[in-house]
Amino acid sequence: MPTFGPYFGINGGNPVYEAQVKGDIVSMMQAGGCVGAILINFIADPYGRRIAIFLCSTIFIIGSVVQVVATNVAAMMAGRFIGGMGVGACANVVPVYIAEISDKSNRGRMSNLWQFMLVIGIMISYWVDYACLQHLPVGHIQWKTPLGIQIIPGGIMLIGIFFLPESLRWLANRGKLDEMRKTISRLRVLPETHEKVIQETEEIIASIEEEREGKATRWVEMRKPSNIRRLIIGIIIGICQQWTGTNAINYYAPEMVRQMGVTGDTVDILATGIYGAVKVVVVFIFFFMVDHKFFGRRNSLLIGSILMFISFYILGALLMYIEKDQAIAAENGVEVPVSDKGYAAMVMLFIFAIGYEISWGPLMYVICAEIFPTRIRAICMSITMAIYLAMNAVIAKVTPLMITQLTYGTYFFFGSTVFAMTIFVWLFVPETRGRSLEDMEPIFSGPLIVLKNKEALRQGVRENEMKEKRVPQFDSGSSNNGESDEQDKVVEFKENINDSHGKNDITSQKQQE
């Protein structure tokens, strides 16, 4: 926005200084996100996911208001930090919430909706910027309006959470089993006595019972080798997603487009709007692919990574020649029109977007939400998201400097990091498609190198698929017996929950009798 820099006094003609200040302002949101991702854990576990999401929305709205009224760089950075706390907390708790209310048969697609809405938001932000530049009078209103519009989605989430159910596993942990079973029935659109509702209820109860019988604190449980492995994989996947370079493009797309020779007051914003639209279309298509047995998690990461590092290497090479052409034109005092190389560079940017949105974009949240055990899921997600957002802050800070000083080398750098990620996925990231959240232990207790355990993992997925296909036939009598058995389990589990919370001592009384 043309008046943003002068308003905050950051248009002094020193490109390195301007890049540093821009990096500081942008990265403050990610810095706040690190804090929010950690602190929300102390709300999400004791008070529930819905309360936590309500708090995320409130904090984000406050941060947006501060940004709109900011009159100096310090105030703008404070608003970004506060808003970032809401974003980071939301990025922690929402994927967990989605995973905990989703059926295992479509959990990948449901978790992909998180990424789908993210890219829709990014696309809308690009087009809002474009509309403000095109239709609003030149002045501070051009950049204040987009900042103010942030309040709208925050308000929608703030109100919408009142119409959503609580997490199934949180309800089970709190002993609210009747509410949990009713919620399962509502979410699956099945009667409470349906075999699938009974089966899912039993799986969740068994998982929670096993955790309670272990009598281990969360921190003791986190020291289990299989859980350490899960946490390390989750953290590395989060770090990798940031170093794909996607947020470098999201934050500084107009500057990158100008590197390609696409210039003009609004042309660069228009090009980034098209980039955002491509991302939305690809995520929508991937929604129907993520739970397919061919793609799953692992293959999608590998295919997407290959597309990404190839497109970045080609993009870097094209920009190297574009810069040479621009240097020659500058010496001769002529202006270089957009060349075929510039258009080809834009195509490579779009191919990168395709690769990212069928892999690291949606699957980082899917994998991290589904690999952690229920008892330590919230704290593991907090750690993962805090480190993820810390890397996000680093990317936001260093990218403008990289664009200014490394120029086309920026794309060779990110291409190399994605190539390294491809090797990491091939060696260490297992396939988790088709397994329930309660059935991940065998995956992370096997050999560290995934290929050594590949057939066992495939067999586990096949067994789960066979379980899904088996639908026992019940007559009226057997159905009643099944319901009675399930109710007995619920009553017994309630007694255990009450005993563990100190509300009564039913179990000990039975033992004395």
UniProtKB/TrEMBL annotation:
Basic and acidic residues bias: start-end ranges: 487-504
Query: What residue ranges are annotated as transmembrane?
Result: 25-44, 51-75, 81-99, 111-128, 148-172, 231-249, 269-289, 301-322, 342-366, 378-396, 408-429
Q: Where in the cell is it found?
A: Membrane
- Keyword terms: Membrane, Transmembrane, Transmembrane helix, Transport
Q: Name one Pfam family in it.
A: Sugar_tr
Which part of the chain is the Major facilitator superfamily (MFS) profile domain?
Answer: 1-433
According to its record, how does it sit in the membrane? Multi-pass membrane protein
Just give the chief location class.
Answer: membrane
Question: Is Ribosomal protein tagged as a keyword?
Answer: no
Which PANTHER family did the record assign? MAJOR FACILITATOR SUPERFAMILY (MFS) PROFILE DOMAIN-CONTAINING PROTEIN (PTHR48022:SF23), PLASTIDIC GLUCOSE TRANSPORTER 4 (PTHR48022)
Q: Which family does it belong to?
A: Belongs to the major facilitator superfamily. Sugar transporter (TC 2.A.1.1) family.
List the protein's name. Answer: Major facilitator superfamily (MFS) profile domain-containing protein
* Taxonomic source organism: Circinella minor
